[in-house]
Design goal:
Layout: E1 13-15, E2 22-24, E3 28-32, H1 36-41, E4 51-55, E5 60-61, E6 66-69, E7 76-78, E8 80-86, E9 102-109, E10 112-113, H2 114-123, H3 128-131, E11 137-138, E12 143-144, H4 145-148, E13 155-160, E14 163-169, H5 177-187, E15 195-197, E16 205-206, E17 212-217, E18 220-230
Parallel strand pairs: 3-15, 5-11, 6-18
Antiparallel strand pairs: 1-2, 3-4, 7-10, 7-16, 8-9, 8-15, 9-12, 13-14, 13-17, 17-18
C-alpha cells in the first residue's frame, strides 16, 4: 500500500476594503433568473420562485486574478452580479430582519459553461457541471455595510475589453436582497461567512482567452479579472 497525506485546502477568504482582516467564506449561494430582461433573453418565465444553486468555495478568484479558460466548454459566459456577505444567519429569517444579517457587499461573476447549461435545462438535469467548476466564482473585495450602508439601488456594470456589456440597477431585481435572504433561510440554515450571488442582469455573453473583465457596483470596490489560457 502506498502511503500519502491528505492535505485539506485552505479556507477561502475574501479581502475587506480598508482593512487588513479577511472575510472567511463558508458557502457560496447563487440566485438565477432574477432580472426580467435576463429572463427574457434566456426564454424563461418571470417571477418564478428564486432559482437556488451553489458553487464550491475553492472556485473563488480574487480581484486582479486570472480565470483559466475552462475545459469542457466552447461557450464560456460571464454573468456579473451583486454579492452579499453575511455576518449572521439562521432558519426562517423574516424579510423585515434580513438586512440585519448583512456584513457587506462585493461585485462578482457567475462564470458559466453556457453550452452545457442549455443541455442540462432541456433534460431537467442539475446545473453543477455548468456552474460549479474550477475558477467559476470571481469575487471582488467586500465593502462593509458600515462604509456603504444598506444597498437597495445602484448599477451593476460589466465591461469586456473596455466595452460595456451589462449595466442595470439592482432595484430591478425581481427578488430583492432581503427576500433572497429570507427565501434561502427557508431551505438552509444561513451562517456567518455565507455569501450570496444575487443574479445577473441582461447582456450576458461569451469571453475568450485574453479578454479583460472590469466589474463594478455603485458604492462597492470594483474588480478586474482576465481570461487566461485553457486550463491544463
Amino acid at each position: 500500500m502506498v502511503a500519502f497525506a491528505l492535505t485539506p485546502p485552505a479556507q477561502a477568504h475574501l479581502d475587506i476594503t480598508g482593512s487588513d482582516e479577511k472575510f472567511p467564506v463558508r458557502r457560496i449561494y447563487c440566485i438565477g433568473k432574477n432580472y426580467v430582461a435576463h429572463i427574457i433573453e434566456m426564454n424563461a418565465d418571470e417571477r418564478d420562485p428564486p432559482v437556488i444553486f451553489m458553487k464550491p468555495t475553492d472556485a473563488i478568484v480574487k480581484n486582479g486574478g486570472e480565470i483559466p479558460y475552462p475545459v469542457f466548454t466552447t461557450n464560456f459566459h460571464y454573468e456579473c452580479e451583486l454579492v452579499v456577505a453575511l455576518k449572521s444567519g439562521g432558519y426562517d429569517i423574516p424579510v423585515s430582519e434580513a438586512s440585519s444579517h448583512i456584513y457587506g457587499y462585493a461585485i462578482g461573476l457567475d462564470m458559466t459553461r453556457r453550452d452545457h447549461q442549455a443541455a442540462a435545462l432541456a433534460k431537467g438535469l442539475p446545473w453543477e457541471v455548468t456552474k460549479g467548476f474550477d475558477h467559476s466564482a470571481p469575487i471582488g473585495p467586500i465593502t462593509r455595510v458600515s462604509d456603504c450602508g444598506i444597498l437597495t439601488s445602484g448599477h451593476v456594470r460589466l465591461k469586456v475589453n473596455g466595452e460595456v456589456k451589462q449595466d442595470a440597477d439592482i432595484s430591478l431585481m425581481i427578488w430583492k436582497v432581503d427576500e433572497i435572504i429570507s427565501k434561502l433561510s427557508e431551505q438552509h440554515k444561513l451562517m456567518p461567512g455565507d455569501i450570496i450571488m444575487t443574479g445577473t442582469p441582461a447582456g450576458v455573453g461569451a469571453v475568450v482567452t485574453g479578454d479583460v473583465l472590469d466589474c463594478s457596483m455603485d458604492g462597492v470596490q470594483p474588480m478586474q479579472v482576465r481570461i487566461g489560457p485553457k486550463a491544463a
